[in-house]
Write a structure and sequence with these properties.
Shape: rod-shaped
Number of domains: 1
Radius of gyration: 33 Å
Strand content: under 5%
Order of helices and strands: HHH
Low-confidence stretches: none
Largest sheet: none
Distance between the termini: 33 Å
Number of helices: 3
Helix content: over 70%
Mean pLDDT: 84
């Protein structure tokens, strides 16, 4: 921002010090050039913030997916172990024990699946919130640079108009 202000002040100083420059729409061209450069800077900042938000969102999504997969695999291993014990109990004639082991394995597997889904969803929401925040911040920065460039351009246009009635 300091650089943009210095550019604007330098343009005003050059224009007031050199009357020969004011001929032929010098201030108009200078204002357009400053406005274009500030617009481009705002767009670059906006794109950088968008890219950063997308990277953060992707990283959190990947982390949530890894945790979800790990918990799903853990639940499946526990369920398989309890299913094997239930099969062994059935073979020995203990049907009630086998049914309890099956239900316990299914319940643990379902609990770990739900837990992984909740963690994954929470990290997804967090990533989306960060990405949206950086996107809005980028929009704000881009608009600020755009307004600042337009203001300098209008001032220089008015200055040029006063010099050439």
């Amino acid at each position: 921002m300091k650089r943009a202000i210095m550019i604007g002040l330098a343009a005003i100083a050059i224009g007031s010090a050199t009357p020969a420059m004011s001929a032929g729409g010098f201030f108009d061209r200078l204002g357009d050039r400053i406005d274009t450069r500030l617009d481009a800077r705002g767009e670059r900042r906006h794109e950088l913030l968008d890219a950063r938000g997308a990277r953060v969102d992707e990283r959190l999504d990947a982390k949530g997916n890894r945790i979800d997969q790990r918990l799903d695999a853990r639940g499946d291993r526990i369920n398989d172990r309890l299913d094997n014990l239930a099969d062994k109990a059935r073979a020995q004639g203990h049907t009630k024990r086998a049914d309890r082991l099956d239900l316990k394995g299914n319940r643990i597997n379902q609990h770990l699946d739900n837990r992984g889904n909740r963690i994954n969803a929470r990290l997804d929401r967090r990533g989306d919130r960060i990405e949206n925040h950086l996107d809005h911040r980028g929009n704000h920065v881009e608009r600020r640079y755009d307004r600042f460039g337009d203001r300098i351009n209008r001032r220089l246009d008015r200055r040029d108009w006063h010099r050439h009635p």
